[in-house]
Amino acid sequence: MTQTTETTFYCANHPDTPTTLRCNRCEKPICAKCAVLTPTGYRCNECVRSQQKVFNTALWYDYIFAVLIALVLSYIGSRFVLFIGFFTILLAPVAGFGIAEAIRAVVHRRRSKQLFLAAAAAAAIGCLPVLFSRVLLPLLFGRGGLIFQLLDVLWLGIYAVTITSTVFYRLSGIQVRR
Ligand SMILES: [Zn+2]
Ligand SMILES: [Zn+2]
């Protein structure tokens, strides 16, 4: 009996399609085809799109700064790895944290997933010169204690993985906590 008293709405984009769904942001009736399921419920396409713009505020030069900062700091850090060895496990997260904070200071509150991915990729690339010098030079010239070279490569690998993931998750964490 209560069903008959319920008003039927028609989708804002499809006037022939009756629906009970509404966008939970603008309250517009939307059919199942138009509704987009977001973490906060069903939304219309327009609201999802305008929301994405808010989450994608990085400017073109933010990419340049973020990549340069990540490249340079990651490279400097990778040189330290050769001196600190085992302590890389403890200090690499700190380095990743520092790189993320430095990038954050420059891009302020602007953000985009691509920006964070670019920064993380740059952090990984920054490790490569030292990593290659440790892998390739001994192979090419066949000198130096092989065990020590292998250990260096191990620490550098741990360093690369740690700072790459720390930079990415630390930067995108800002997005979540907004
Ligand atoms: Zn809406
Ligand atoms: Zn529709």
Description:
By secondary structure, this protein is mainly alpha-helical. 67% of the residues lie in helices and 6% in strands. The protein has 7 helices and 4 strands, in the order H-E-E-E-E-H-H-H-H-H-H. The chain has helices spanning 2-5, 45-54, 60-84, 88-107, 113-126, 128-141, 146-177; strands at 9-10, 18-19, 36-38, 41-43. It has a two-stranded antiparallel ribbon with strand order 1-2. Strands 3-4 form a two-stranded antiparallel ribbon. Strand 1 and strand 2 form a beta hairpin. Helix 3 (60-84) packs antiparallel against helix 4 (88-107), helix 4 crosses helix 7 and helix 6 (128-141) runs antiparallel to helix 7. The longest helix has 32 residues, at 146-177. Mean pLDDT is 87; it is low at 174-178. The site of one zinc ion (ZN) has 8 residues, from helix 2. Residues 23, 25-26, 28, 43-44, 46-47 line the site of one zinc ion.
